[in-house]
Write a structure and sequence with these properties.
Blueprint (H helix, E strand, L loop, with lengths): L32 H22 L1 H17 L1 H21 L1 H33 L3 E3 L2 E3 L2 E7 L3 E7 L6 H5 L2 H7 L6 E6 L2 E7 L22 E6 L4 E4 L6 E4 L6 H17 L3 E6 L15 E3 L2 H22 L14 E6 L12 H17 L5 E7 L15 E4 L6 H7 L17 H4 L2 E5 L7 E5 L4 H13 L12
Parallel strand pairs: 9-13, 9-14, 10-11, 10-12, 12-13
Antiparallel strand pairs: 1-2, 3-4, 4-6, 5-6, 7-8, 7-16, 14-15, 15-16
Helix pairs in contact: 1-2, 2-3, 3-4, 8-9
The protein binds adenosine-5'-triphosphate.
Adenosine-5'-triphosphate binds next to helix 7.
Pfam family, one: FtsK_SpoIIIE
Keywords: ATP-binding, Membrane, Nucleotide-binding, Transmembrane, Transmembrane helix
Protein name: DNA segregation ATPase FtsK/SpoIIIE, S-DNA-T family
């Protein structure tokens, strides 16, 4: 401040070329020392007040032991710290969930904010291209806050003015590796703000056994597995159509069988009928006795689908002008048409006549069936458009492990992979990756990661034995598992 600024040297510059740019000397204002002292004191006080206001607990943690040590001797300060540490350890040992909820995750979030995100923020933003250096000044997006859950860090970010969500979703790999995570998912928090999820560990890394058959007959949503955040994965089947795509061995069977398993009490109560199409003659034949209608060869599959269309049209005629939504009853149960490997019936079908009949029936069911209680749950391996031209007619889509990154958007819709649905990176090892899926539901554009429970052959056998032993419908509240 009291030093002569380098700008003063401008007066000594001598130029011999006539077109030299004009050199301006910045004006130097000599500030009285008292003004500088007042400004610095004001900034210090404002900083202390802001610190106390924003971080009262952290401030107390430092100031209280220091004050105690100052007033009564250092032994008192150390004793207080030891007492608090012992108390916190006891709390964590006795009631871990409440400790984690109220303190543990906050402490971890604070540590991760300082050690991981703030420390690497500027380089990661600039190198990934999300920040800019203009005229020697760095403009980087604002790191608003970090919160921790049991499996991920959730980082709230204020985008730079003029940035788009796509700028961020195009750089999820830079962000993930820059902050030491395996992946990053981008969601919109509100206008101009994003929520970035960086998983710290994979809560879906261990296979999930088949879930208990529900005690109560319900048409759904059916609990079929676990979501990444630990909450149950409930799949809606009534009032929608679901497409499940996955490479061979990705675990399509676990989604189909978990859904059937969850619906069994409702099947026994007469509220649901399952019509199964099994062109591969492998997956569904095992539990044939559970289905109201079963077809395997293509001609029988075409008949089944056309019968489902007839049910749909008959109901549409009856419901017209009376009710707009279907309520499952014993007279008008929800009909779930389950198709394993739908491409066998469409793209790979050599009989042109059958192919046309099947495609027409599937298109009719998926466009008009849901309002009258006919739903389709279809699985397929190859999601290319020419393999299943009607894939956009399924409101809800699930992508298990896929072979190529382009297939992710084919199944889940445009931009799903950029938002973090990395279905092509799911492990091909069955114990690590089978049954793991990204689901994109009609109600939410954000892909959700989850793992379906694995329904083994023994489980299917037990389901068949239990549900075929007694043909009487179960009362709605009877315990069956
Ligand atoms: N949810 C799951 N959790 C753990 N392992 C699973 C799960 N689902 C399937 N697996 C394992 O992966 C193997 C293949 O599963 P599945 O047959 O269901 O795959 P798929 O996608 O139907 O394959 P395909 O198209 O060849 O029939 C199973 O034998 C099992 O070992």
């Amino acid at each position: 401040m009291f030093k002569k600024l380098p700008g003063d040297e401008a007066q000594h510059l001598v130029s011999t070329t006539p077109d030299t740019a004009v050199v301006f000397r910045p004006a130097v204002l000599r500030t009285p020392a008292i003004v500088t002292i007042i400004i610095f004191t004001w900034r210090l006080l404002a900083g202390i007040v802001r610190l106390l206001w924003r971080h009262p607990i952290a401030s107390a943690v430092v100031t209280v032991p220091c004050a105690l040590a100052w007033l009564h001797g250092w032994q008192w300060g150390v004793a207080l710290i030891a007492l608090v540490l012992v108390g916190l350890t006891a709390w964590a040992l006795v009631d871990r969930p409440s400790f984690a909820r109220l303190l543990g995750w906050r402490l971890l979030a604070w540590w991760r904010l300082i050690w991981v995100y703030r420390r690497h923020w500027q380089p990661v933003m600039l190198i990934s291209g999300l920040g800019r250096t203009l005229k020697g000044r760095d403009y980087v997006p604002h790191l608003v806050k970090v919160t921790c859950t049991s499996w991920a860090d959730l980082v709230t970010v204020k985008m730079l003015t003029g940035q788009a969500v796509k700028d961020w979703s195009d750089r999820i790999e830079h962000l993930a590796h820059g902050f030491g995570a395996t992946s990053c998912r981008v969601t919109i928090a509100r206008s101009g703000r994003l929520l970035l999820a960086f998983p710290r560990r994979d809560p879906l890394a261990t296979p999930l056994p088949a879930l208990l058959i529900p005690a109560v007959a319900s048409v759904g949503p059916v609990e079929i597995g676990k979501r990444e955040d630990g909450s149950p994965w409930r799949l809606k089947v009534h009032g929608t159509h679901v497409l499940v795509a996955g490479a061979t061995g990705a675990g399509k069977g676990s989604i189909i069988w978990s859904t059937i398993r969850g619906l069994l009490p409702a099947v026994r109560a007469g509220l649901v009928q399952i019509w199964a199409l099994d062109p591969k003659l492998m997956e569904l034949s095992f539990g044939r006795a559970l289905f109201d209608y079963y077809a395997a060869d293509p001609a029988a599959c075409a008949d089944l689908l056309e019968d489902a269309v007839k049910v749909m049209q008959e109901r549409a005629g009856r419901f017209a002008g009376v009710q707009r939504n279907h309520i499952p009853t014993v007279e008008d149960p929800f009909v779930l048409v389950v198709v394993d490997e739908v491409a066998f019936l469409t793209a790979y079908q050599s009989d042109k006549g059958l192919k046309v009949r099947i495609s027409a029936a599937l298109a009719t069911l998926t466009t008009q069936g849901r309002a009258v209680g006919v739903g389709v749950l279809a699985a397929l391996q190859d999601p290319r458009k020419d393999v299943l031209s009607i894939r956009n007619l399924f409101p809800d889509k699930i992508a298990l492990r896929l072979d190529e990154s382009e297939q992710v958007d084919m199944v889940l819709g445009d931009g799903a992979r950029d938002r973090g649905a990395l279905a092509d990176l799911i492990s091909p090892q069955p114990d690590l990756g089978a049954g793991i899926a990204y689901a994109r539901l009609e109600t939410s554009p954000e892909p959700m990661r989850a793992r379906a429970g694995y329904v083994s052959d023994a489980d299917i056998r037990a389901m068949v034995a239990t549900f075929t032993a007694d043909t009487l419908p179960l009362p709605l509240t009877e315990e069956v598992a």
